[in-house]
Amino acid sequence: MCLFFVLSSYLITELLLRENEATGAIHLKEFYVRRVLRIWPLYFGFIALCILLGWFYPPWRLDWMRVAGFVFLAGNWYTGAFGYTSNPISPLWSVSLEEQFYLLWPWLARCGRRVTIALAAATLPFSMAMLVWLASQGADSDAAVWTNSFVQFLFFGCGALLCFALRRSSLSRSPWRAGVLVTGGALCWFIAEAVTQIKAKGGQPGAMQLCEGYVLVAAGSCLLLLGFLSLPASAVPKPLAYLGKISYGLYVYHELCIYLSRRLFATVDHGFTLAAIVSLAATIGMAILSYELYERRFLKLKERFTFVPSRAA
């Protein structure tokens, strides 16, 4: 999740900078239209599906306050206050948070390079201060802390800073370099999870523990992104590149597919393994169908409002 936030910020910042260089301005209306066409059709379509599933399956029934939170792009705040739901809508809290970033960042990017860099850099001390305050309140690290916008903005800030840093230098592409960076990033993540345990369910880590853990996650996310960017284009197989195109659908549908697969194989020998295989295949299948039959219709409209095309996945 944090890697996705870093990547999203990196890409959006790069596209905004390129648009400004190519046209002399950042076009806010077109930016928001592009984001709406990319995010909202699947986001709100899946919310509607989850509401419908709740009507037929009582354990997934959603209270209307939670629905309102997600509809008004505040699903992360509702989740932080009242916890997760068993309904497959639960992972969409991160989409709400990402939309909050999209709402703010283009306006800030228009303030100029120095101001934008300073604001991105300010996310680190600001997020650390928020973590200290949440720890003093005994906040649950798995919900109240993890879904907090002011905490997660740290990763958006890292992505933006990485974008500015890489624009001033050429990144050498090498499988060996990529391997070292990815290994380092994975190690940071492992330490954050195993040692600091910042996402332990029901946990209440201290302020120092939280700050150390989130810094490690941020460092790991940046190293992983640098590792992927260091891969030569020829080293990325076409099927893997295609998975990058449908990654939004993979994320949206994965929990629904996992739950259904586990229910299907609950009483079967080696059911956990079978459920994992089937859920993976089902998630990819649903994401492909969603992308090809539904999302692409809106992506074609999105091209009309694009000044600087993004690189192919």
Structure description:
It is a single chain. This protein has helices spanning 2-23, 28-56, 64-71, 75-82, 93-109, 113-136, 141-145, 149-167, 175-196, 207-229, 238-245, 247-264, 271-302. It has 13 helices and no strands. The mean pLDDT is 90. It is 75% helix and 0% strand. It is mainly α. Helix 2 runs antiparallel to helix 13, helix 3 runs antiparallel to helix 4 and helix 6 packs antiparallel against helix 10.
By DSSP (H or I, 4+ residues per run), the number of helices equals: 13
Q: Tell me the series of helices and strands, N- to C-terminal.
A: HHHHHHHHHHHHH
**Regions with pLDDT < 50 over 5+ consecutive residues?**
none
Shape: globular
Helix content: over 70%
Main sheet summary: none
| Estimated radius of gyration | 20 Å
Distance between the first and last residues' Cα = 18 Å
Structural class: mainly alpha
Number of strands: 0
- Average pLDDT, all residues: 90
Topology, element by element:
Layout (H helix, E strand, L loop, with lengths): L1 H22 L4 H29 L7 H8 L3 H8 L10 H17 L3 H24 L4 H5 L3 H19 L7 H22 L10 H23 L8 H8 L1 H18 L6 H32 L11
